[in-house]
Design brief:
The chain contains two helices and seven strands. The chain is about 20% helix and about 35% strand.
Length: about 130
């Protein structure tokens, strides 16, 4: 906390990730991104053979980080596909944190539209190229 105490008014980026150790333990870590590096803020190690963990396993870490970072109104959580779940989305909405989740293109998004849409249809096709006038 001492390292980021002067970051008031700037967006604070957090990375939520997991690491499997020796195919027996899973470490969930929440890190502050600084200068392109992830500096650990909070972590939890548990006996678990997969890098995909349930929301209940990291919910307490999120709640604690929310309390620790209450002076930072502009927080962006970055996470991988293993964290894409409704419980996390609800928590992020309540926390008023921004978020960016990397998802596979076959995930269905339920939004304001009447029917869910597959994520790949929200991106422009790769064949579209921009032309620069010379």
């Amino acid at each position: 906390m001492a390292a980021i105490h002067k970051w008031d008014g700037q967006r604070l980026y957090l990375a939520l990730d997991t690491t499997v150790l020796w195919n027996q333990y899973c470490m969930i870590h929440l890190s502050v991104i600084c200068g392109g590096r992830a500096i650990p803020l909070l972590w939890k190690v548990m006996e678990h053979k997969s890098s995909t963990v349930a929301f209940r396993e990291y919910k307490l870490m999120l709640r604690l980080s929310h309390r620790l970072l209450h002076k930072y109104p502009d927080v962006m959580l970055l996470a991988d596909r293993g964290f894409a779940n409704h419980e996390l989305m609800s928590w992020l909405k309540m926390s008023q944190w921004h978020y960016c989740l990397r998802l596979p293109c076959d995930v269905f998004i339920h939004g304001a539209r009447r029917h869910p849409i597959e994520l790949k249809y929200l991106c422009p096709p790769q064949s579209i190229s921009l032309r620069v006038n010379s």
